[in-house]
Amino acid sequence: MLDKFRETAITWDKANRKVYEPLRVSAGDNKGRKLSVQVVNGGVVENITGSSLSLFWETRDKAHRGLDVFTAVDATKGEFEIYYTTGMLSNEGVLNANLVLVDTSGRVVSEPFTITVFKGIDDNAIQSSDSFTALTEALIDISDLEQNYAPRLNDLTAQLQQTKSELAGEINKKPDRGNISVTDINKNLGKFDQSFMSDEFLSQLTGDSPINAVPADNSITSPKLANGAITNEKLHPYYSRKGKFTGSDLNLAVEPGSYEVLAETLNNPTNSAAHLIVFAADGGWTTQIINDLYRDSDFYIRNFRYTNGSVVQVREWEKINKEVPSLFSMWRDENDITSGDLNEIRTTGSYQIINTGNILNLPDKMEGSSAHLMVFHANGGWTTQIINPTPPSNQFYIRNLRVDHLGVASGVGEWQRLTNEVSSNDIVEVEQKLKVAHNKIQTLESRDPFAWKPFDKAYITIVWDDGRRDLDKVWEVWSDYPELPFSMAIPSDRLLSNPQLNGTSSQPFLRDLVGEILSDSKNELLGHGKTGGAITENRSPQWVDDELGLAKLDYIDLGYDVRGSTLSGETDPEGVYSADNYDDVGYGYIAKRYYDYGDRLAYDAPYNMGRRNWNTSYANRKAYIDEAVADNQWISFFAHTMDGSEAANVEQSMREILDYIVSLGVENIEFTTYRHMYETFGSSELRQRLETLENQ
What is the dihedral of CA 668, 673, 675, 677, to 10 degrees? Predict the structure, then answer.
């Protein structure tokens, strides 16, 4: 009954915002009187669920104010109620008031109306706080959250429940601690360090104990190998580099090919540096032919069996023309020959002649319908052939032939039979025949002497001889003229001793400097003999052969590609240095055994001014150069040092003449090397005649 007594009910039409009746309350009605409001819109009841209704009040002097929230009775009908707060009732007198409706679209405020508080206030009442603006905004935010985020929160709650179920399933799949296997580990998510490894495994990795990993085929790359890690012995006992046999024992030389052998190699019958030819046959048999490189041209031959990495049978070396057994009975044939001309078979290798009746230029008295043929060649276009009728025949025939630049056999030697019984007189006869053969070769070469092609301009070469102690200073100056090629001629003994230049620890070693110079392909190293000894009237052909041949072996052993040679020495106690001596000692012919070109190999040919001493005055040098320019000639100088021991060879004079040469222009004179001149302009009289006929 008292609820209706204490209640003041009003209707607020928010369309016109008017509240028509003033309200009166007692200050003592704490929790005793309430206000009921129904919110309508144009007289129509609406569902305003989610909205909030508040009562704003303020004293006339604006000293106190408050914003008190209604309780929703039935929001679907817009019905709210509020019990007046003690904060409001504590303010006796007339209060200005507004109703404030907040929904998601914003705030609606009624027109002002009055509330009169008459005396009777509770002594314990307190004033409300001034919270109108803050509370209004908070109410709007809460309303937004309820309208916009409640559905999403419901969805998230459902998703969270689903994720929880899925995680529970995944956890059930995870292995228990202590039961994890290697397949459970994702290696991409981390790396192991040594703390995860056993001591045994770490020992295997560091090399203290064997590890069982086997690398896959073709899996080890060059960058993984340390420099010098692979030795010749690890490659194979007979491993060869640049045709040089690097093993210690010829019993291990079983790989087919041609090699250069050092004198100290075991089982070397020549006891000197030599050429070795190796070819293999069926059944593990290997045949070797070895030839003394620079002395008596002795040939030895033998065969042996090599099985499972070990020598099981070894025949004695036999000197050819002394006692030749049937060594070729086990030749392995790589090519079959059924017809043709032996003069045209010049490629190194072994061949099987199927039908000798269809072959031209066989030995006249050779027996048998088939045969083995072995071919190998040397410098100067010479080819050697050895033929043996089908084993077990003991007939062996050998000959040499030479092929010109057109591929035509220009010099063909007679087939010589190698017999098992040779007397001492026969040996002398063979030696005489060899000398005759050498004379014939020289005669043949003299019939087609060297000749230059005409030069298109002048050329100049300066060769620094001997590798003197200040060669690094010469190279330092020369480096200021990078377009000029650098030529040097150094005896092989000096390269082997490898002195430190200028005799001080701060200077480079000779071979290091030579390597730096040769790293530019336009520069060259020429042969200069083994000791640098002079070619004089009392030198023997054998001495010259040793001096040039042994030097060639040294250059090969040091890894230098030396194609040309220059004379060495001016004075010598063995005799007088004279150009006329060269033919007497056979310098030109001997040099051609080992080198392709050199200063004396075409010394007197047209267009060549010869080799002149750099140790002369500036005026003389200039005169020589001017003459070469005027006649399109090649002039070559030899120099030794610029340390002052040769008066005209000092740095200043060298720079002056180099500047002069450069000033003439490359169209008039060009710095060059021996290699460039012989490769570009080298020819012969016969070759030039043939070229003239071809061009007609």
Answer: 20
Under the banding of pLDDT at 50, 70 and 90, the label for residue 682 is confident
Block residue for tokens 């709007």: 140
Q: What is the pLDDT of residue 573?
A: 45
Closest CA to 490 of 459, 536, 539, 523: 523
Q: Cα separation of 557 and 6, whole Å?
A: 127
Residue 536, token pair as written in the block: 């004089």
Which one-letter amino acid corresponds to residue 409? A
How far apart are the C-alpha atoms of 287 and 315, rounded to whole Å? 10
Taking Cα atoms as reference points, which of 93, 87, 99 lies closest to residue 35?
99
Instruction: Determine whether 549 is exposed, middle or buried from the number of CB atoms within 10 Å of its CB (0-12, 13-18, 19+).
Output: buried
- CA 638 to CA 220: how far, in whole Å? 50
Residue 70 to residue 8: CA distance in whole angstroms: 14
Beta-bridge mates of residue 37 = 10, 80
Give CB contacts under 8 A, 24+ apart, made by 509-518: 510/467, 510/471, 511/558, 513/471, 513/472, 513/475, 514/467, 514/488, 514/490, 514/560, 516/475, 517/475, 517/486, 517/488, 518/560
Cα separation, 102 vs 504, whole angstroms? 102
Instruction: Tell me how far the alpha carbon of residue 230 is from its chain's centroid.
Output: 18
Give the model confidence (pLDDT) of 4-23 as tens digits: 556 788 888 876 667 757 88
* Cβ pair 531, 547 in contact under 8 A: yes
Per DSSP, the residues of 480-532 read: TSTTS--EEEE-HHHHHH-PBGGGSTTSPBHHHHHHHHHTSTT-EEEE--SS-
Q: How far is 377 from 490, CA to CA, in rounded Å?
A: 29
* Angle, CA 97 vertex, CA 92 and CA 98 arms, to 5°: 165
> Which strand (E) or helix (H) includes residue 9?
strand 7-13
pTM of the model: 0.40
Which amino acid belongs to residue 129? S
Strand partners, 608: 634
Choose from 41-45, 407-411, 467-471, 519-523 the range with maximum mean pLDDT. 519-523
The tokens of 28 are what? Answer: 């003592």
CA distance 324 to 300: 9
Q: What is the pLDDT of residues 630-669, one digit of tens each?
A: 999 888 888 989 888 888 888 898 899 999 999 999 999 9
Show contacts of 498-507: CB within 8 Å, 24+ apart.
Answer: 499/469, 501/469, 501/470, 501/471, 501/472, 502/469, 502/470, 502/472, 502/473, 503/469, 507/472
Taking only the tens place, the pLDDT of each residue in 566-582 is 876 544 444 444 445 55
Nearest-angstrom CA–CA distance, 580 and 512: 38
* Neighbour count for residue 101 (Cβ, 10 Å): 23
- Residue 64 tokens read as 């106190």
- Other CB atoms within 10 A of residue 606 CB: 10
